[in-house]
Design goal:
The chain has one domain. It is built from ten helices and no strands. The radius of gyration is 27 Å and the shape is elongated. The protein starts with about 30 loop residues before the first helix and ends with a helix.
């Protein structure tokens, strides 16, 4: 997208802005929220794997066996052949987009830039799950430190940046099939779940009664499938709203607030992250130097006392 362009992207990464310059052991977890956030990162990865597995199974069912993988078929408002290709093409595009994101993430990781890693959704996850001597956890702590103590405008810029990164997935890879899902859920609701009653309480009771009846049909399979469809639709709605909000932030605020010298939202975010990184590294280095000086003075004092004792 135009607002993501940056003339700094191909610039040489400074040594002090690389992972090799940072001592990961200097970063510690200082609150209980950081481990929770790290656990959520692993959960989101497992959830993504499950979603792509279901997508693979659905695509095979549609393209090879020419049928749906569940008892619930998409809305009759769209012919089967049309809905089949909508789902299939969207699933294929999802895998193509995932492959592109992995190629981009690997290129960023080879460059070794901390800021570029922080500014890529997939690279953050790949860096944070590195195995061996707590490398992933330590790098996640670096990302957590970069997120702290930012100004409101910087949070808005980062939110918009991450939201814009997902525009292909939200609009092209998921949008059409989520529209089919929405129409399917609406059809099922009108046919089987729509509540009827003279008051709100009776309508609510009737609604839950019909859900119970639907759940008991076919061994809870339909209810589980509908729940999955509803869950993915809700996730997509939030992603779409985030993208819309990011666009509004860009049009009404960021496009005017970002200096032209940054070349766009990407350059602005990278400059701010590098500035924050340099500040963190300086503090860590100065602290390490002070600790070394303290240890040196302590050793000299101990040696002096030992010499006095020997002379006495």
């Amino acid at each position: 997208m135009g607002c993501m362009r940056s003339r700094r992207r191909e610039a040489e990464v400074r040594p002090e802005a690389k992972w090799d310059y940072i001592s990961l052991n200097d970063f510690k977890s200082t609150n209980c929220f950081t481990p929770l956030a790290y656990g959520y990162l692993w959960f989101s990865l497992l959830l993504s794997i499950a979603v792509y597995s279901v997508d693979t199974f659905t695509a095979i069912q549609l393209l090879v066996f020419n049928k749906w993988s569940s008892e619930i078929e998409p809305t009759q408002l769209i012919p089967f052949d049309v809905s089949k290709w909508i789902f299939s093409i969207c699933i294929i595009l999802s895998f193509v987009n995932l492959g592109f994101e992995h190629v981009r993430a690997q290129r960023i990781m080879r460059r070794g830039s901390v800021a570029e890693s922080y500014l890529d959704n997939l690279t953050i996850k790949l860096q944070s799950i590195r195995l061996g001597k707590g490398q992933g956890w330590k790098r996640f702590l670096v990302f957590a430190e970069l997120t702290k103590n930012k100004k409101g405008a910087e949070y808005v810029a980062l939110f918009s940046y991450y939201s814009f990164q997902s525009w292909i997935r939200v609009i092209l890879c998921s949008g059409p099939r989520q529209a089919v899902n929405a129409m399917t859920l609406l059809s099922v609701y009108n046919a089987k779940i729509a509540a009827s009653g003279d008051s709100f309480e009776s309508s609510l009771m009737d609604f839950f009664d019909k859900i119970g009846v639907l759940a008991r049909e076919d061994g809870y399979q339909q209810a589980l499938i509908l729940s999955g469809m509803c869950f993915t639709l809700v996730i997509w709605v939030f992603s779409a709203l985030s993208l819309l909000l990011a666009a509004l932030f860009w049009v009404f605020y960021l496009s005017c607030a970002i200096p032209r010298t940054d070349g766009g939202l990407s350059g602005y975010c990278e400059r701010k992250v590098n500035k924050r990184l340099m500040k963190i590294v300086s503090v860590k280095v100065n602290k390490a130097i002070a600790e070394q000086e303290r240890q040196r003075m302590k050793a000299e004092l101990k040696a002096a006392k030992k010499a006095e004792t020997t002379n006495a």
